[in-house]
Amino acid sequence: MVYTVVAIYFGVLAIIGLLAGRRVRSLSDYYVGGKRLGYWVVAFSARATGESAWLYLGLTGLGAVVGLPALWVVVGELAGVAGGWFLMARPFKAATDRLDALTIPDYLVGRFAAGPGAARSATVLRLIAAIALAGFGTIYVSAQIDATGKAFASFLEWDYYAGSLVGFTIVAVYASWGGFLAVAWSDLVQGLLMLVGLMLLPIAAVVSLGGLDATGAALTRLEPAMLSVWGPGGVTWLNLLSIISYAAIGLGFLGSPQVFVRFMAIRGERDIRRGRWVAIVFTLLT
Phi then psi for 101, rounded to 5 degrees? Predict the structure, then answer.
């Protein structure tokens, strides 16, 4: 049964890649979906990309280790998501449209490489951007591949490396076929699965433990300090520094290129106004 579900899931991704590939007729289509994506797709894609394995394995794992103090990460994440959509999405979209930019390096060159020495400035900016994106992008993608391998090893008892290779191959195939459009559509599907799964899982856990009171009692027996949002010992300087560190994680969304390319791809300002609320609700629910 599990393998049937996995096969169906991979089949859906392959179909998305094929359908998206039929709509790719230019570089703009391939890189940013022709800049005509609706707010539902962009909002879910931005959140699925921004959270992904970081949410499913990283944040949940942190919650299992430290308890309620992990909620400060959610506070920072909400601030980062809201800041990105309310403060940066509209001007960034307008600027990239004006500069006819298809990538983040295109925007940087159009924005800062002007006047005397523009050609040299453009070369330097593209080189710096390429190094930064290749370096940090490799780290980011590697984390997703690592999570894929661990998921296959945990749920299907596969070899870790085999699971990583299969997951990477599937993503590479549908992304190559359909470009950014395939990625955005698949993110919408995966975002819906994330939303449903993350909403049902806590309910199932509480029910299996016998209700809210029984769940609280079980957590108290495990480690009472985990039920305090301030951490062990209450409000201390060490705990405050930890809280600031947790909250600061979410501020990374204000500069994530994989999120901002979604702002480039959205249809227009009206969709930005609608998409911001979808993204915020998604963040609160997950």
Answer: -85, 140
CA distances from 105 to 92, 124, 129 (A): 13, 11, 6
Per-residue pLDDT of the chain in tens (286 residues, 90 and over written 9): 777 887 888 888 889 988 898 999 999 999 999 999 999 999 999 988 877 777 777 888 888 888 888 899 999 999 999 999 999 999 999 999 999 999 999 999 998 887 777 888 888 999 999 899 888 888 888 888 888 888 888 878 888 998 889 888 888 888 888 899 999 999 999 889 888 888 888 888 888 888 888 877 777 777 777 788 888 888 889 889 999 999 998 888 888 888 999 999 999 999 999 999 999 999 988 7
CA distance 82 to 217: 35
Whether the model clears a pTM of 0.85, i.e. scores above it, the answer is: yes
Instruction: Give the type of residue at 272.
Output: I
Longest CA pairwise span in the chain (Å) = 71
Across 3-36, b (16+ Cβ under 10 Å) vs e yields eeeeeeebeebbebbeebbebbeeebbbbbbbbe
